[in-house]
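During the reporting period the student researcher (J.K.) took over the structure-prediction task from the postdoctoral fellow and processed the backlog of single-chain submissions. One of the processed entries is reproduced below for the supervisory committee.
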Amino acid sequence: MRAEIITIGDELLIGQVVDTNSAWMAEKLNEAGIELYQITSVHDSREHIIKALDEAFSRADIVLTTGGLGPTADDITKHVLCDYFHTRLVEDSRVREHIKELYSGRPDVLNRLTATQWLVPEDAIILPNRVGSAPLMIFHHGQQLLASMPGVPYEMKIAMEEQIMPYIGSQTISIIHKTLLVNGIPESALAILLEDFEADKPQYIHLAYLPKDGLIRLRLSAYGEADEEEMNKWFEQLKRLVKDYLVADEDVPLEVIVGRLLQKAGKTISTAESCTGGKLASLLNKHSGSSAFYWGSIISYDNSVKQHLLSVPEEMIRLHGVVSEEVVRQMATAVRSQIGTDYAIATSGIAGPTGGTKEKPVGTVWIAWATPTDTYAECFHLGALREQITDRACQKALVRMIQILRNEEENRKEN
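J.K. obtained the following structure tokens:
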């Protein structure tokens, strides 16, 4: 079964709002075994919406639309869908009572524009939207169907999970994805390493290379023909081939892997950041439960902070420069001691676009990792764009931390 997504709204096309809905919907469709064929964004324009609907129905079994369901004049989706499916708007008493209850404590919201929300297409199947006023609408188009949802992300997510996906029901094919994360090998070299694997695997099992900032996702996919047992066989073979570069055998964020390893060992971590400006700390405390292993950070952007809070000697900075092995080692050991954690990571670099020199160009980053027994440091050259440099620095910091924690876990097992 094939689906398409149509997102409706001028705000998406001028960059005022980023379309995060489609990525989330794509994931949910994939989990349900529905192949997503295309995502289209269109203006709040009757002609544009109708053209997109015609094209989507020429290819897909299911069309999902988001946006344009508000009560204001620029929200035209409901009216266009009435035209498209040759129906009219009628009052729905269930929607009316839901909206009145939803806004019972806010009489200012229950005005004549809000009242237009309980007008719904006569020939649509109306599903409840328990967290918003815009009704969820299902239209049947022969053997195909269209589901219309609000564009507000939390409303859309609840609509998809509680109403739309259950309505769509069981699907005709299964989709299986299995993903590895690898680091430390160029994409081209990885492809050469896996040439025989690619030639031997069945054609209905696909291998995709998804590189980003030095980390490569290797995704095995099967659409309808392979079962879990067969996929596991090929996945294990793939893992053995890339074992020297393997970071994870599932598609999860690096900071989640670090957190799991720290929690398993009952250990904690802190950071001292200069060029990354707290980005690494933000990753480490991004997910629920991070307080079990992440204790805090010192954001030492200015040299005076490095000197006063991390005991970096002024003479060390003068002799070696703030972007140096000596400085990041001191930062890492000091923050580990100051905050009292088992591990610490420190970063210092030139994120640009200014500040680079011939000896230390923009993109030069030193990273240090302090452990209960040692401190390691390494220099990286991470590009020329500021955001790219800081993102890559965080990635390098987390990948190396994973390696350190796994090595220590193996040593504990042996002893």
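The committee noted the following: The domain at 254-414 is CATH 3.90.950.20 (Maf protein).
J.K. will present the remaining backlog at the next meeting.
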